[in-house]
Amino acid sequence: MGSIRLSNPKRNYNTKNCKENWFDYYAGYSPEFVEDTIKYLNLPSNSIILDPWNGIGTTTQVVEELGYRAIGYDINPVMVIVAKAKRIDYISLVNAEKESNELINKGKSYYLTDEHVQTDPLGVWLNPCSILPFRKLERAILEKNEIHDKKKLQVKNYENISNEVAFYYLALFKTIKELLSVFRSSNPTWVKRPKLASERINVNESIVYESFLNNISKMASSVDLESPNLINKKNNDIILSVSTSESLPLPNDSVDAIIASPPYCTRIDYAIATVLELALLGFSSDEYFSTLRNKMIGTPTISKEEIVVKNEWGKTANYFLKLVSEHESKASLSYYYKIYLQYFNSMYRSLKEINRVMKKGSHCVLVVQDSYYKDILIDLSAVFSEMVEEVSWKIENKISYHNKRTLASIHQGTKKYRKNSSVKETALIFQKKE
Ligand SMILES: C[S@@+](CC[C@H](N)C(=O)[O-])C[C@H]1O[C@@H](n2cnc3c(N)ncnc32)[C@H](O)[C@@H]1O
Question: Which domain holds residue 202?
Fold first, then answer.
């Protein structure tokens, strides 16, 4: 195993590439890392690179910029919309401010009353009259797209919405988050829900339009319009869609490489982190939202599925589970043990599924982050390396990075068990055997 250098996957938040900052996201990795990895893999032109956990689309964006074919899936439709929005073309971006004024005027012309929003998912936080400007703007945005269900005012087909529509959706996401910022908490991935109807807030219609316009202007002006990446004609051979990594809508042996960072094992609730955006997309707190939340890998919710420990997960995962089950702290066995069982189970299923779609001899590059349960280290790099032995991949290279900033510090009680919250990130380069 020769030593190689790839840029640190830790995202640099001061990046000049400002599209990276269009959406506040804690889980993204750096475009520089993806670029170095693609160059290292040295793939023939026309190769297909897949990210089954595409998040805000860092992988697919770089893949496209370097002229390869990209496929990006994420289980969360919010992420698919963000990834698409970043692909907005030059002309649409230049015209965005003018266009958004037209969208506002169009929105204002729709006749919608409180009755139309009686069961609206946004009603958890907003009084009915304050929901109306959001739905009017949404309808105007969707009118730009041919494929939608006008009756329900929901984006039904995420794969087919245009990049431009996704861009305006993203502005609406930013608007709702900004205007409902009172429901944020000290944990950056948590959004509070009012318990009483009297705690729901009113937002003046004109404020919603003003914030929407302002967000469009900020996004448009943050991008260097001279950037060659923006002016280049966008490749249409790109798939961005919703899918679970446990069942990918791709044929066997069809992908030339995988570059991804799998969901963390840190009990961060990404469904709640995007609960406002999901409500805007029509996911209410009941059935739809809970189903999505339960299917997310790393979710802190416990599903009904009965899971048994498997030897195939490897000795590190099995030993870790044993330590958690025997830990003295309250809820270790009754709750946390089940959370980790789910994580390993879903991750193993995903790796098998990824293996199915990979061509023989192709590479899979995964960035994993170690974490802790109380004082017990979860050595994810070892867990993944052992799991993929079962699908007969070999490890070609392994690069470790030590980063200071982690989300571990947001979990109360972490400090009781560990003083040092720095964690190790590892880029694992695997190859599927010929
Ligand atoms: C660590 S993030 C990936 C970030 C990405 N590399 C980027 O730069 O934006 C993991 C992603 O996996 C997604 N995810 C969680 N469970 C999933 C599942 N079962 N199938 C597909 N995606 C899932 C989450 O929504 C999240 O966006």
Answer: 92-228
Considering the domain architecture, whether residues 99 and 80 belong to the same structural domain is answered as no
Residue 407 scores a pLDDT above 70:
no
CB 74 near ligand 1, within 6 Å: yes
Q: In angstroms, what CA-CA distances link 152 with 117, 143, 282?
A: 11, 13, 8
Q: Which amino acid appears at position 82 of this protein?
A: V
Print burial letters for 148-164: b (CB count within 10 Å at least 16), e (below 16): beeeebbbeebeebbbb
Q: How far is the CA of 336 from the centre of ligand 1 (A)?
A: 21
209 and 332 housed in the same domain: no
Total domains, the chain: 2
The response to whether residue 33 sits with its C-beta less than 6 Å from ligand 1 reads no
Residue 410 confidence (pLDDT) above 50: no
Residue 143: inside a domain? yes
Q: What pLDDT digit, counting tens, does each position of 242-258 carry? A: 999 999 999 999 999 99
What is the distance between the alpha carbons of residues 140 and 217, in angstroms, rounded to a whole number?
18
57-99 residue pLDDT tens: 999 999 999 999 999 999 999 999 999 999 998 889 999 999 9
Domain-embedded: residue 4: no
Query: Which atom of ligand 1 lies at the shortest distance from residue 297's CA?
Result: 16
Distance from residue 351's CA to the centre of ligand 1 (Å): 14
Q: Verify whether ligand 1 is closer than 6 Å to residue 282 (CB atom).
A: no
Do 224 and 105 have their domain in common? yes
Is this structure's pTM higher than 0.90?
Answer: yes
